[in-house]
Amino acid sequence: MRRRHLLHAAPALLAAPRLAGAQGARTLRFVPQGNLANVDPIWTTTVIARNHGLMVYDTLFGLGRDFQPKPQMAAGHDVSADGLRHTISLRADLRFHDGEKVTARDCIASIARWSKRDVLGQRLNALLEEMRALADDRFEIVLKRPWPGLAWALGKPSANICAIMPERVAQTDPFQQITEHVGSGPFRFRASQWVPGSIAVYERSAHYVPRDEPADFLAGGKQVFFDRVEWRIMPDPATAAAALQNNEVDWWETPLADLLPVLRRNREIAIEVVNTAGNLGVLRFNHLHPPFDKPEIRRAIFPAIDQKTFMQAALGEDAALWQVPAGAFTPGTPLANDSGLEALTGPRDPEAAKRALRAAGYDGRKVVMLVPTDFPTLNGMSEVAADALRKIGMNIDAQAMDWGTLVQRRAKKDPPEQGGWNLFVTSWEGLDVSVPGSHQPLRGNGQDGWFGWSSSPRREALREAWFAAPDQAAEKRIAADLQQALWEEAPFVPLGLLRPPMAYRRSLSNIVVGGPALFWNVRRG
Amino acid sequence: MFAYVVRRVLATIPVMAIVALFVFSLLYLAPGDPAAVIAGDQATPQDVERIRASLGLDRPYLVRFGSWVWDILHGDMGVSIFTNLPVTTMIQQRIEPTLSLMILTLILAVSIAVPMGVLAAWKQGTIIDRAVMAFAVLGFSVPVFVVGYLLAYVFALELDWLPVQGYTAFSNGFFPWLENLILPAIALGGVYIALIARITRATMLEVLGQDYIRTARAKGAGQGSILFLHALKNAAVPIVTVIGIGIALLIGGAVVTESVFAIPGLGRLTVDAILRRDYPVIQGVVLLFSFVYVLVNLLIDLVYTLFDPRIRY
C-alpha cells in the first residue's frame, strides 16, 4: 500500500465508526437549557428540575392549553356544596415505575411534602383541616375555608409541581433530597446512567398507562413514542447549534437569539415558540432603601420604559419571539387584562419621566443595579434598563456579576453602600405570574416577601380575595384591580413577555405546545 | 534515588495542606450562596436558612474546615451540594475524558513540536525556520476556542468527517474514542506545540554550537544521528521541563476545550461547580489538580536522570 492510499483511507476510517454508532430512531436526543444538577422537583425550584419532574412524575391534575386544570391521575374530583371538602378518586390503572399501584396514601404523602415547599402548597397547608384516605383509590382534602383554585395548584407546571411519588419516598424531609427515583410519570429516570453536567437518560415506563385522550398540554393522553430520551448537556450555545445542524441531536431547548439566523438557513431545522406562556421580564426595585422606597420615584420611571426595546435586546428583532404590551399578568393567559395598561402603551416620554423624578425628590444619589452577565437575555435587558434610567437622570452604578453572586447579593437587606442593592432585572416563568397566588413580584408581604420586599396591604388583600374567588369572572375583576395597583404602587416594572423559541430537526413532529419541552406525543416522522 | 522519591512524596503533604487551606478560605470568602440558588425565587428567607442549615453552611469557618479536612484524611471528599452524589463518584465519572484528552494532546504535541523545533534549529534562518516560528506565534496568539470552532466547522459541519461534540469511552473502541477526541486534542495542543517547538529550537541552537557536535561531524556522523542522538538528548532537560510545566497549560485549556466540544470532563465539572457554588466539588477537583501537578513535577525531576547521567538524587 502506498502512503498516499493510506492518507486517502484515513478519513474513511475515522468516519466509519460514526455510521456504526448512529443513534436509533427510537432515541430522542435533547439539549436542555442547562445542567440537570439535581433531580428532586420538590427540593429545588429550578426550571430544569421541574422539567425532569414532569417526565418522571405524573400529577393529579394537569393544565390544558387553555391553562385550566383537568383531571390527570385523578379520575374524578368532587367538591362539597360548601367548597370545603374535595374528594379525589384515582384512575384504576395507575402504577409507579416499580409496578406498585398508586394509592391514596401515596398521593397524600406527596401532597404533604409538596405543601411544605411550594408557595401554593403552603397556602394549602394554611387552609388544611385534614387529608385522609377514604379507600385505596380515593382520598379527601378538607379545608378550613373554600379554595376553588386547589385543582389548579395541584396541576400547575410551575415550580414546584405536585409530583406524585411512592409514600416511602414522599416521606423524605422536603429540605433533603430524595435518594430513590421511582416515579409515576411516563418516563423512568435511569439514575445509574446520570452524569451531571453531561447526560441524563430516561426510558419509557412500561407501567405507565396514558389517558385515552389526545394530548392537551399537561393534560390528556401522555402517549410516548420514544423508548429512550437522552438529555445531553451542552453549555456552549455554538456547540449545541453545530450539533443540531450535524444531526447529532434532535432538539435544542434554548437556542441563543444570535444563532437563530444560522439555524433558520438550515432546511432540516424548525424554529418554533413551544413555550407560549413564555417568561415575563421584570425590573425589580428594592423598596427598603432610597430612592425606590418612594412610590412616586418608582412610578416616575414608567414613561421612560419602552418594552419593545427590552424585548429586542433580549431576543432580537423578530416580534414573533416576544409580546408587548405586557401588564402584571402573562399575556395570553386568562387573567391578563388591559387595566391601566396605557402607563406603558402611551407615547414614551423620557423628559416627562425626568421631570417626575425631580418632582418626586430624587437627589442624584447612586443607584446600584445588579447585572447578571451569564444570562444573555437578562444581561441585554439590564443594559437597556441602565441606559433608560441614565437618560432620565439617574446615577446608575451597574455592577456586573454572575447569577450565583446575584442571588446571594439580592438577599441582602443592607443599604446599597453597605453591599445591598437598588434594582435588578430578572424574568419569571409565564405560568408563575399568570395568577396572583404564585405571582411573587406582585405580592406586598414586605420583609417576608420576594427580594425587594414590597409592602402593600392592598395587594395582599386582593391576593387573599383571589384565593376565595368563586369563578373566573371574579378572578378577572381581582386581576384588573391588582394591575391597577401595579401602576399606582409600582412594586416592579413589567418589561414584556419573552417567548424564546426552541429549535428541532424537522424529523420530529407533534411537539406539545404551551409550556416547557414535554416528551410525550412527540414522534419521529 | 528511593530516599529522594520518598522525601519528595512527603514534601507534597505540606504543599497539599496549603492548597487545601487556600482553596477552602477562598471559597469561604467568595460571594455566592448555594442555598439561595437551590431555594429559588419562591422560597421564603426561612426556607433559605433551613436549606443552608441542612447543608451545614451555617456552621463556623473552623468547624467546616476541620470537618472537611477530617473527611479528606479518611478518603472522603464529601457529597455534592446539588447532585447529592459523592465527589469521588463525580470525579471518577469525569476523569477518563480529561485524562484521554490530555494524553492525546500530549502525544500529538510532543510528536509534532519536537521534530518541528529540531528542524527549525537545523535549518536556522531559512524559510522552514521562519515558517515554524510563524506557526509558533500563531499557536500562542489564537485562543483555543477559536481553533476549536474552526476545526468543528471545517471537519464536522462542512466535511462531515468527525462529530461536533461529545465523548466516547475508550472501552467502546479506539476509533470512536479517537474520532471524538482528535479535534479537541488539536485545538488544545496548538499553544502547547508552539511552546515546545520554540523551546526545542532555542535549546537545539545552543547545543548545535557545542564542541562535541563539531567533533561528531568531524568523525563523519550522519545528520540524523547528530540531531537526534547527540544534540536532542543533550537538549532534552529544558524541553522535558517545559513539557511538565505545560501540563498546567493543558489543565487550564481543558476547561475551555471541554466546553467547546461538550466533553464531560473535569474542566467542565469545575466550571459548573463554580457557577453553582458547589463547594465540595470545587474543593475536591482543585485538590486533585494540585496533586496531579505536584506529581508531574516529581516525575519530570526523575526523568532528568534518563537524559543526563550527571544528575543523581
Automatic annotation (TrEMBL), chain A:
A Pfam family per the record: SBP_bac_5
Family in the record: Belongs to the bacterial solute-binding protein 5 family.
UniProt subcellular location: Periplasm
Keyword tags: Signal
Leader sequence segment: 1-22
Record keyword DNA-binding present: no
Ranges where the Solute-binding protein family domain occurs: 68-445
UniProt-listed InterPro entries: Peptide/Ni-bd, SBP_5, SBP_5_dom
Top-rank taxon: Bacteria
Main location: periplasm
Matches recorded under Gene3D superfamilies: Dipeptide-binding Protein, Domain 3, Periplasmic binding protein-like II
Name the UniProt record assigns to this protein: ABC transporter substrate-binding protein
TrEMBL record, chain B:
Parts of the chain that traverse the membrane: 9-30, 99-122, 134-157, 177-197, 235-261, 281-307
Localization, UniProt: Cell membrane
Domain ABC transmembrane type-1: 95-304
Superkingdom of origin organism: Bacteria
Keyword presence, Lipid metabolism: no
Family classification: Belongs to the binding-protein-dependent transport system permease family.
The name this protein goes by in its record: Peptide ABC transporter
Lineage per the UniProt record: Bacteria, Pseudomonadati, Pseudomonadota, Alphaproteobacteria, Acetobacterales
